[in-house]
């Protein structure tokens, strides 16, 4: 049986808010998250969280990398 990961929706919401607040352009950060999720979806399945949806994984990764300005820069 596949292992299911429980995702805390409050944590996801907090991370999304951090990303949007750190970005100067809400549309641009939304597109960046969507593009990363799309890329991850088609990459090799060599990651541990196979049951986590690509969009959630992209949000988690990008919010962890929020301290790196190249993600949020224009």
From TrEMBL:
Q: Name one Pfam family in it.
A: RNA_pol_Rpb6
- Under the cellular component aspect of Gene Ontology, which terms does the record hold? DNA-directed RNA polymerase complex
Q: Which reaction does it catalyse?
A: RNA(n) + a ribonucleoside 5'-triphosphate = RNA(n+1) + diphosphate
- List its EC numbers: 2.7.7.6
Annotated keywords: DNA-directed RNA polymerase, Nucleotidyltransferase, Transcription, Transferase
**Superkingdom to which the source organism belongs:** Bacteria
Query: Which top-level enzyme class is recorded in the Swiss-Prot or TrEMBL entry?
Result: transferase
Read off the InterPro entries from this record.
DNA-dir_RNA_pol_omega, Pol_omega/Rpo6/RPB6, RPB6/omega-like_sf
Q: State the Gene Ontology terms under molecular function.
A: DNA binding; DNA-directed RNA polymerase activity
Picking any one GO biological process from the record gives:
DNA-templated transcription
The task this protein performs is described as: Promotes RNA polymerase assembly. Latches the N- and C-terminal regions of the beta' subunit thereby facilitating its interaction with the beta and alpha subunits.
Quaternary state and interactors: In cyanobacteria the RNAP catalytic core is composed of 2 alpha, 1 beta, 1 beta', 1 gamma and 1 omega subunit. When a sigma factor is associated with the core the holoenzyme is formed, which can initiate transcription.
What HAMAP family does the database record attribute to this sequence? RNApol_bact_RpoZ (MF_00366)
Which family, according to UniProt?
Belongs to the RNA polymerase subunit omega family.
The name this protein goes by in its record: DNA-directed RNA polymerase subunit omega
- The species this protein belongs to is Pseudanabaena cinerea FACHB-1277
Q: What is the phylogenetic placement of the source species in the record?
A: Bacteria, Bacillati, Cyanobacteriota, Cyanophyceae, Pseudanabaenales
Gene assigned in the entry: rpoZ
